[in-house]
Each structure stands twice: as C-alpha cells, then as structure tokens.
Design brief:
alpha/beta; Aconitase, domain 3; five-stranded parallel β-sheet; four-stranded parallel β-sheet; about 30% helix
Length: about 475
C-alpha cells in the first residue's frame, strides 16, 4: 500500500518509537518568538544545558511589537521585557535573531517561507498554533507548547503521537471574488471546529493546486481552526518557483537536484486516508463569520442562521455568540456596519494580500468612519509594497500602511479594537476579545475587507458597487 505525503515525511523523521506510546520525532527547523520562548530558555538554564543545535533555530519578534515608531522603545512594559529577553537568549545561545530594526524582521510564519527556511519534506515546529502555515510547501509543520519548545531546544527532537490522516479535495474552479480565505472558511463552516480533531489534513484538487503559494499558506494556516493538528499541500512547480532564489534554498545545480527529491513528496495512488471530504469550488462564495469561532461562517450573501438550523449540541454557544456580537437570527450579513478594518497577520499579511487589497481600493476612498490598519507581515513585504507603488495607492485611497508585526490579530500589543466596536479582519480567529477586550470580529478575505473599507458596511466584493 502506498503512503500519504504525511506518512512519508513522518516516517523518515522517526528516531525511535516508544512501545504503546509516542514517537521521538526529529525536527529539521525550529522557529521561535518572544511569547513562548522565555520559559523554555529558563528551563534550559535551570538544568544547565545549552541549545543542542542552535543553527536549526531561527527567532524573530512579532507578537508584542508595535506597528508604529518601531525605532522607539516599546511602550508596554511586558511586551518590551519579552522582546528584550528573546534578544538576550538568542545571543547567549548563538541563535539567528531577526529583531526590530532588522530588515529581516516579521511575523514568524511569513519570514520562514519568504527566506526559504521552509522547504518541502521538512519537519518544522514553533510555539505558535499557526505553524501549520508552512505545510503549504509540503512540510510537516505544527504548533507546540512551551515545554515542547524547551524539549526541541535541548534535543532537536520532540515526543509526538502520530495523528490520523485526512484528505480534503476541492474540485473545480472558484468564481469571481472568491479567494483562498473563502475556501478555508467555507471548509471550516462545513466540517466544524472539531471536524479535523486528531488528524493531519492534506488539501488536494484543482481549486487548491490553482492557488499561488500565498493562497496555499492561508489555507494551511487555518487548518487548526477545524481542530486539526496541521495541514499540508503537496509541492509542485508553484512551490519550486517560489523557493528558487530565496536565501536559505540550495543554489545552482544543488537546487534542481533538491527539486528532484521534492517531486517524490506526494501521496501514492493507493494510499488510504482515515477520513476524506470532497467539495465543489462552485459552491463557494465570499465568506464571512457571524459568531465567535471560525466555524460560525456563512456566505456573504446569506444571513445569520436561525436557531433550528444549528445542531442542538451547538445551540448554547450559538446563542452566546449572537448575544456577544449583538446580532439577530436571520439578519443579513451584507450591510452590517463595521468600525475597523484590519489587513494583516500570518493568515493574510503577505505581498499578494496587500496587492489584492490595494488594487481593489484603487480609485476609491476609504469610508470616513472606518479606522483601517494595513499591516505588512514582514519588512520584505513592507519594502516590496513601497517598491511596487502599493503604499501610494493605499495613501491616495485614505489608508496608511503600518510597520510589520502580528498587530490586531491577538491584542498582545498596542493595536487593539476598542470594546463594542466591530472589525472586519483578515486574521484567523474571531474569539471573544481576541482583537481587544469586548471587541467583535467578522473574519473575511482581503477583498471583502477592501470592499467593506470603502462602503463602511459588509460588502460582497464580487458584486461591489460603491
């Protein structure tokens, strides 16, 4: 029997297997940031041991950093201490660090791919749930806890129980205005926030392979919002073209020799998955969430579901979500007033996301009551946006581009949506208070965010009329 893509990578990285227990899995690359690493380094210091293979770890500051005046000292004391601690720990242990002021700084799941740290066939971990982003390259990538961060720093290995395998196939071609973000929001709305629990998802089908790498990263990024351990997509020419010429990719003939190895990273025809789903891309419209988890999503042309449409077991959370969001059953999503628009995060803070947003708003003006935060995912994205004239397009439309960081994705920095305000956000989570205490979030794509920023109300980008 053939192996799945997941099995091929997992099996080739197993160092040992504990009888009736987890496997010892070798980790090729370890990404760290300022939030989940301080306790891990403190654990090493307490035990008096060094980082085992510091050259396999890369660090950046992203969660706690401000997105304005990054040349100044960070105002929030805890954020400043965490960033300073990360800088000190990386110097002490000889780890590559991209901090504020570095032209390589950015969100950890943005800089990994753009620098070629992320490569097909690798195992990759980070103390961050959205590490699944890197699976877009045919890597086996997943988030880990702080104690596991310490484990990898100490041994370059981790104890893991092998997940089950799931394949989600999306056939056909998407319609106008539908993006990768809409594809994954649709999938989660169909299988639920626990539909992927215990599984690693492989995405396949024409609608998936038609995506560029930025789109594939968006899909894999949100895999964990379905409860999955991670997501991945088999590498192909799109993958190889993206990696060619990146800093850490092989050079010259060595790159093409590597490509020949990467071409073997695909699921065998007779491989068996534990669970499979199949969707038709023509059924997918621009999506938007109405509740307080990513599974509470509907087509933008739809309405807030009626109670009888919600399974009994989920009705309690449904009622609580509507109360928090101050929405009524049957209310149309189009036309809902929005106060804030946020473009950014490890889900949608890449150059293609900024391009899509900027080209959509070109020639229009931001609605007067909208506060918009346009936050590039890395210094490279920021620089490219300037070089390609995107910043000027945004400025003429009334927007201002900020500096790189996680920003309003998770309210661990100065960018917080005020209590009671509604934000349409290109991030990955719409939990209560996720973007600021008492804030209310509608998840959507960059195109939907752009249309909404112009009109001031939730707007279908496919039928946009200012």
């Amino acid at each position: 029997m053939g192996k799945t893509l997941f099995d091929k990578i997992w099996d080739s990285h197993v160092v040992d297997t504990i009888e009736d227990g987890p496997s010892v899995l070798y980790i090729d690359r370890h990404l760290i940031h300022e939030v989940t690493s301080p306790q891990a380094f403190a654990g090493l210091d307490k035990r008096g041991i060094p980082v085992f293979r510091p050259e396999k770890t890369v660090a950046t500051a992203d969660h706690n950093v401000p997105t304005e005046d990054q040349h100044l000292s960070i105002k929030e004391e805890l954020s400043r201490l965490q960033v300073e601690k990360l800088a000190a720990n990386t110097v002490k242990h000889g780890i590559t660090y991209y901090g504020l002021g570095s032209e390589d700084q950015g969100i950890v799941h943005v800089i990994g791919p753009e620098k070629g740290i992320t490569q097909p066939g690798r195992t990759m971990v980070c103390g961050d749930s959205h590490t699944s982003t890197h699976g877009a390259f045919g890597a086996l990538a997943f988030g880990i806890g702080t104690s596991e961060v310490e484990m990898v720093l100490a041994s370059q290995c981790i104890l893991q129980t092998k997940p089950k395998r799931m394949r989600i196939t999306v056939d056909g071609q998407v319609r106008k205005g539908v993006t990768a973000k809409d594809i994954i929001l649709y999938i989660i709305s169909q299988i639920g926030t626990s539909g992927g629990t215990g599984h690693f998802i492989e995405y396949a089908g024409p609608a998936i392979t038609a995506l560029d790498m930025e789109g594939r990263m968006t899909v894999c990024n949100m895999s964990i919002e379905s409860g999955a351990r991670g997501g991945m997509i088999a590498p192909d020419e799109t993958t190889y073209n993206y990696l060619h010429g990146t800093r850490y990719a092989p050079e010259g003939d060595a790159f093409f020799q590597k490509v020949e190895q990467w071409k073997k990273l695909h699921t065998g025809k007779d491989a068996v998955f534990d669970k499979e789903y199949q969707f038709d891309a023509r059924d997918i419209e621009p999506m938007v969430t109405y509740g307080t988890n990513p599974g509470m999503g509907v087509k933008i042309t739809g309405q807030v579901p009626q109670p009888e449409e919600i399974p009994g077991a989920s009705r309690g959370s449904y009622n609580k979500a509507l109360q928090y969001m101050e929405l009524k059953p049957g209310a149309p999503m189009i036309g809902q007033k929005v106060d804030y628009v946020f473009l950014g995060s490890c889900t949608n803070g890449r150059i293609e996301d900024l391009k899509a947003f900027a080209h959509f708003v070109k020639g229009y003006k931001k609605s007067g009551h909208i506060t918009a935060w346009i936050v590039p995912g890395s210094k490279k994205v920021e620089q490219q946006a300037r070089q390609e004239g995107l910043e000027e397009i945004l400025r003429e439309a009334g927007f201002e581009m900020r500096q790189p960081g996680c920003s309003a994705c998770l309210a661990m920095n100065e960018d917080k949506i005020p209590r009671g305000k509604y934000a349409i956000s290109t991030t990955n989570r719409n939990f209560e208070g996720r973007q600021g205490p008492g804030s209310r979030t509608f998840l959507a794509s960059p195109l939907t965010a752009a249309a909404t920023a112009i009109t001031g109300r939730i707007t279908d980008p496919g039928t946009f009329h200012p």
